[in-house]
Amino acid sequence: MTRALTETIDRVLDGVNAISAPGPGVTRPSYDPLESRAHAVIAEEAGRLGLTVERDAALNLFARLPGRDRRAPALYVGSHLDSVPQGGRYDGPAGVAGAMALAAALIERDTPPPVDLVVTVTRAEESVWFPASYIGSRAATGRLRAEDLAVCRADTGRTLADHMRAEGGDPDAVLRGPGRTPATFLEPHIEQGPVLVEADEPFALVTAIRGGLRYRTARIAGTWAHSGGAPRHSRADVVFALADVITAMDRHWAAILAEGHDLAVTVGRVDAAGPEHAFAKVPGALSFCIDLRSNDTAVLDRADAVLRNEIAAVEAARGVTFDLGAPSRSVPTPLSADLTDRLHAAFGRQGRAVRRMLSGGGHDAAAFAQAGWTAGMLFIRNQNGSHNPDEAMDRADLAEAIDALAAGLVEACAP
Amino acid sequence: MTRALTETIDRVLDGVNAISAPGPGVTRPSYDPLESRAHAVIAEEAGRLGLTVERDAALNLFARLPGRDRRAPALYVGSHLDSVPQGGRYDGPAGVAGAMALAAALIERDTPPPVDLVVTVTRAEESVWFPASYIGSRAATGRLRAEDLAVCRADTGRTLADHMRAEGGDPDAVLRGPGRTPATFLEPHIEQGPVLVEADEPFALVTAIRGGLRYRTARIAGTWAHSGGAPRHSRADVVFALADVITAMDRHWAAILAEGHDLAVTVGRVDAAGPEHAFAKVPGALSFCIDLRSNDTAVLDRADAVLRNEIAAVEAARGVTFDLGAPSRSVPTPLSADLTDRLHAAFGRQGRAVRRMLSGGGHDAAAFAQAGWTAGMLFIRNQNGSHNPDEAMDRADLAEAIDALAAGLVEACAP
């Protein structure tokens, strides 16, 4: 392993993670000055290595190291630098640091890549800020739509177009542009679950990315009442109603898994904590969100139907009214079997039996795959899941994965 | 019915309800300048009628109309003027307006009451502000303790002693004082449930007041995780855990009612809506409160034990940890059967068949009863429950109850 590889990983991760809004963990909102400052850290690092830096109209960053075959489709490697609120230090930055470390290792060894290597830093991957998936990578591939630019950031209420412009981007040009020529996109990323930790393996190949169906602004309306004065039969209690729906969905979730399908059900936010809520009042209103994920669109549709059935039953039983609000969706996406097979074989010849696994979370690689690119992912072992301040990747695991990738690059990616 | 009676009701209710913090409904916090201003409205009204006004060290207000027998124990009639946040116009003020209207009617008819009539306005009845029950009435009866004065108001974080002092009270004197000589306390109050509306009856007599067991600051700790990355078996999801406990308590509640016991279970506030909560995160922390009410201490204790059992089961099943925090309690309290019987008989001789019923909510009358006073209550019909902006008492119902009380006063309250 080259010294440039580990030093670059350290420098990129430390540089990027010095940039965050105050509070626990890391907060770098999408299309925020903080995200732009993190991108500037990468531009500086690329300059140090002599890479050519380019930004597209959506402010995705591309830093190019020329390959032996300059006309073949390039190999894009990278990830994103925005984070969820109070997230961790590795969801996104690990892949960017890995990509830059790959370039640094090849330069240090003076072995150009088989094709152009493009260190890629996307924008706005975390859809918690703007209710739209894979904004930067869809812009890069010519698939962002006018209606996406009109969505508003959850904290500021300002549109994506506004925020993009404020950071120096050009939303009109994003809509006009055809997107980059399809090539190969490989995304190193921390695993967001415990599989590699439990298996004691440093990294894995990802075969497919789950899709999601989310209701981010669901509400329940019931009847406010005095907690001592309202008899049980007269109540329309929204907290009890939500509890009914959650326990019912929990049973369906277990049953669908038992049939061998893939599904995750999460209610990440419940707000029955406004100024009108008090211990002595039967709650008459609340808001919540629900997130369904699966590798199978049919399972998502089935879970959605089950949810609506359970809601109808609870509405009838409790006299409350649910309003799920507008759904947002991302499609389950298989990654390139060919690329994954070639990487698997290359790793195998290095004596590494690298696991193939599903990605539970969504990633930019899905957007590239949906746009017809050859897309793949490497998962890096990570403690404590992601989207929280306790993400704990061992940098040595990332270095090992990138070192293995560097060694297998010709085999996996030669045109 | 005298004109003074209805006009006094209108003037008191309009005057008091002109005083509120901004926002929907009525917000008059306990020991707040707004509560003091509402008390001043009553002092002014008492002055207009020529009553002698006195405030005790806890700032309870007493306005006295001399009776025929000045040495017999007085008849205190009244209620409170603080409200829950975003509460209604009648929970509390109806009883104060009724008491003042009773005095006005007796004065207009030039018929002194059989004993001194003391229009009574307590402080801090709504325990949503300070986590302590019946603060003003316990102070008036010499039963407030030093530890009560140290509790902090939910919104300001300042102690009861501080707030009492800021309004002109003397907390040290409250602790020293023996309290008033036990007499009779009668509290007119809106019904907080739908019983009288459904029965089409204007008012009722209350036989007993439910007690309560509340956990106001309960918390659950679990594990934050990525909603797509964390497999079902690895999760410690606090929202699912709370849903389990709520649906279990709902079943127990139905079963306990089916056995013929009295119980109400309310989870009035659930806060899984902090900056760290997001749709893409398995929630790892939340806070909530739970309110158990019954007319039977044994049922409260049983519900508490059931709650703790269910929590232990959910903790074991889901790998989360509950911390219920400190409980606060109020004791189920029977009111004076003798006073209630005398009023019932007096109303009966007026041709009124007045229902006897339980009070689901807590009231100052319970504190007076616990202090050895002869205590009773009149419930006035009210739409839409209480503790919400839609409380809707018909003032004619209050006037009818007070008119009936005035006509039965000698019979019910003569020494």
Automatic annotation (TrEMBL), chains A, B:
InterPro entries hit by this protein: Amidase_Cbmase, Bact_exopeptidase_dim_dom, Peptidase_M20
Assembly mode: Homodimer.
Record note on cofactor: Binds 2 Zn(2+) ions per subunit.
Protein's UniProt name: Hydantoinase/carbamoylase family amidase
Keyword terms: Hydrolase, Manganese, Metal-binding, Zinc
EC number(s) given by UniProt: 3.5.-.-
Record-listed Zn(2+) 1 binding positions: H80, D91, H189
GO MF, any single term: metal ion binding
Keyword Manganese: yes
Pfam family of the protein (one): Peptidase_M20
UniProt binding sites for Zn(2+) 2: D91, E126, H387
SUPFAM superfamilies associated with the record: Bacterial exopeptidase dimerisation domain (SSF55031), Zn-dependent exopeptidases (SSF53187)
Cofactor: Zn(2+); Mn(2+)
Family, similarity comment: Belongs to the peptidase M20 family.
